[in-house]
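Exercise: predict the structure of this protein bound to thymidine-5'-phosphate.
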Amino acid sequence: MSRGFFITFEGLDGSGKTTQLRRLATALEAEGLRIVTLRQPGGTPLGDRIRGVLLDSRTEAELGGIAPAAEMALMFADRAQSLEHVIHPALAEGAVVLCDRYTDSSEAYQGAGRGLGSERVRAMHAAVCNGFQPGLTILLLPPLEGSLIRARRRNERHTKTRGTDESRFEREGDEFYGRVYEQYREIARRDSTRVVAIEDEASIEAIAERILTIVHERMAD
Ligand code: TMP
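Solution:
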């Protein structure tokens, strides 16, 4: 299992995907695999700047908001940078790359949430990322309500303790997140080979075990 393999984690804010990504990284490292982890937006110095603009709720007042198509283009600018500077080089060296969000997020949030439509997002993915997709996507999609409550609480905590404010998306209403949720389900139906959806709310341990089994199976193919 020394060849490179690209895995993305997707889901709503507060779905537990970041926790699961970290657990998978630890488990695979213990097996002796070289693991590279990153998140989008972010993961490169340019990406971290873009993340600041996109996620900080003060952006609304300071920059007069972000047009939906500009938001999509910034997400893809970040993605292009991490593909060229991190993801492709790591895969070429045989690493397993675990990425917290990728293009499915743009289709769910900008395509459905902001209403740009899947076609525009998919066209941008073809143009900017050359259509490059992961070998496996783990989609964590527990019931919507619990995810939102967890995400909003976490952001309040971070705003108080770290002075960072990444709540620009979490401030969106339940209708926005309803559209994001439904689009994720649609992506899972459409790309049922690439995307494995975990929709129940089992324990962190049980889900981590399930994910590890899936990853072993896919990497052995
Ligand atoms: P996270 O790092 O906590 O998952 O937050 C990233 C936020 O950015 C999250 O609210 C989803 C949003 N996002 C998009 O709207 N489109 C994208 O393409 C990506 C990668 C993230």
